[in-house]
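Form 7-S
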Amino acid sequence: MQKLETFPPSRRDYHREYMRKRRADPNFVRWAEKHPEVRKEIANRSYHKHKDDSGAKERRSRSQAKSRAKVKMEVFIHYGGDPPKCANCETDDVDVLTIDHIDGNGHQHRKEIGNKLGYLFYRWLRQNNFPPGYRVLCRNCNWLHYIGRI
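Output:
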């Protein structure tokens, strides 16, 4: 059986779309609810079949890192321009950039949305169509904003 990563992009996209639709299919959902022991057995067989695949964890980790970096960059470009820059000092080193709550209500906002930090917060921003009230600052400027010096 061919691994999903080796499929051409069109076939890989087709497979992902097929699985998304299948999981949303009410008939499949009903079957899955009625047969949890069968689904567990299928998952167990798959686990034992692939548990010795030593490269799988590294491939999954690299794939997740790429995906997370893509979401982060998408958010930074939306709020900080292309290429993203600090709104205050205009540094463009992505490793030191961060998202700032313009009104300074970050602590309260994190409580409201479930304490999402880092990637989860970037994903939340994207899922909520990039709401206003945020900007890109470098960590130094963000700290200066927090203590009230800018």
